Structures
1.
Amino acid sequence: MANHKSALKRNRQNAVRRARNRANRTKMRNAVKAVDTAIEENSVENAQAALKVAVPTIMKVATKGTIKKETASRKISRLTKRVNLFVANA
């Protein structure tokens, strides 16, 4: 347990940041799952709509610093590639 005033403040800040990061990560994962669900349901319109929601969500999470920008770029690229392949084969 922290004893110094600065250490107590640091613990409070870390708790707030952890909660914010967890919420952002959850939003991102839910957006990606929505795309996956649409692909499993063989719905081209829903997959493309879910992708349009997921891409800005992933970038926003990267902008906030929850994930790195390279990670966001990789996730977006793979997700877009998956949707495009699904649309081409549908």
Note: The mean pLDDT is 96.
2.
Amino acid sequence: MIIKHESEVPYQKVEDPKAQNVYIKWLIGKDSPAPHFHLRQLQVMPRGHTPLHQHPYEHEVYILRGQGMLVREGGTVSLEPGTFALIPPDVKHQFRNPTAEVLEFLCLIPKM
């Protein structure tokens, strides 16, 4: 069992050259005993974005604070606190923050 406060886990800068001003903390990550899933918390700083990317696994996202956009095949969707999304495998997507406030969200992915 793991029980912690998120403030105990430091953010790390996302080093992907296609990301701009994105930070991640692995709340339940690669070094945990979790058998099936990883839980991450991300911050997209003002005018930042994740890479436009796709991968062979689904992930679930829950917006904690801030405003932003989820760019996906077929258009763009606005994000605000309380918004959640299921992103299916192999769907291109990107999180963008065009605002002056931080966009923060939780992201659940399968353990690889």
Note: The mean pLDDT is 96.
